[in-house]
Amino acid sequence: MLFAGIDAGQTSTTALIAGDDGHAIAFGYAGPADEIGADAQSTRLRDALEGALADALRNANMKEETRFDAIVAGISGYEGRVYGQSPRLPGDRVRLVHDTVIAHAGALGGNSGVVVIAGTGSAAYAVFADGSSHFEGGWGYLFGDEGSAFWIARTAISLATYHGDCDGTRALLSFFDVHTLRELVRAFYVGDVSRASLASFAPVCIAAAKAREGCPCLCDPPVQAAQELARLAARAARESADPIDVAFVGGLVADPWLRNRITEATQDALPAANVVQAKGDPVDGALVLARRA
Question: pTM value?
Fold first, then answer.
């Protein structure tokens, strides 16, 4: 038997193929797959999924026409439908899901619990012992993404606009090579500074908070982010009083100092939580779900 898992993100797409024993045979890679702003003619998602899987087959020295018993693809922002051209994946069973679903399966090995994704954006997904599930967050940078890297940077800018000339303002102007905060904000609104670029300022705030150097514009947002991510986990768990595993994944939680703050905040917000290390990556989770199919 042959299975494939695909992690289709906003930056890149990864495919992993494996046999019945679950051991990896080969990886494949392609470009971004999100459908933000896509119309019916867009091939962005199709090309990414098909391209990553084809690359994995080439790397495994397998034929292009190879069929899989099951394929599961987790797609960033997936809402139950494809807006552009539908992917043609060579599987007897093919399932497209939101990327939080495969992140959950990868982090918790397919078991029950909560996973919180904290990268450029944020979202949480819980699966309970009875098989039911609950999704929280994922509202995007305008209406949500609490505690994310983008949220940290946006909060720092907001505080800087209030405090004026301070360490935070000077750090922002230097980082983005602009003369004024208004110039920075305008650059974001017109698209000269992307969401990912703005989010890349978050590590500056985290470093300042760790060193306890700088003004509140720099030091406060990471501390507040830890609280926001903990609350996101608690909401996903429906404030359960029963013991439940919680895993945090994403680039933002790679920093040990911030991870410790998140863990402490989670234990306060959800006393029954058992904060655990992620067992695997989202693409591993996609493969777990494919094998279960």
Answer: 0.83
- How far is the C-alpha of 178 from the C-alpha of 181, rounded, in Å? 8
Asked if 265 contacts 289 with a C-beta cutoff of 8 angstroms, the reply is no
- CA–CA separation, 232 and 145 (whole Å): 10
Q: Are residues 46 and 144 in the same domain?
A: no
Q: Yes or no: say if 5 and 26 are a contact pair by the CB < 8 Å rule.
A: no
**Considering just the CA atoms, what is the radius of gyration of the chain in Å?**
20
CA distances from 94 to 91, 171, 282 (A): 6, 48, 17
How would you class 247 by CB atoms within 10 Å of its CB: exposed for 0-12, middle for 13-18, buried for 19 or more? buried
- The answer to whether residue 176 sits within a structural domain is yes
Q: Lowest-confidence range among 33-47, 127-141, 166-180? A: 33-47
**DSSP secondary structure letters along 32-66:** ----TT--TT--HHHHHHHHHHHHHHHHTT--TT-
**pLDDT-based confidence at residue 154 (cuts at 50, 70, 90):** very high
Same domain, 258 and 212: yes
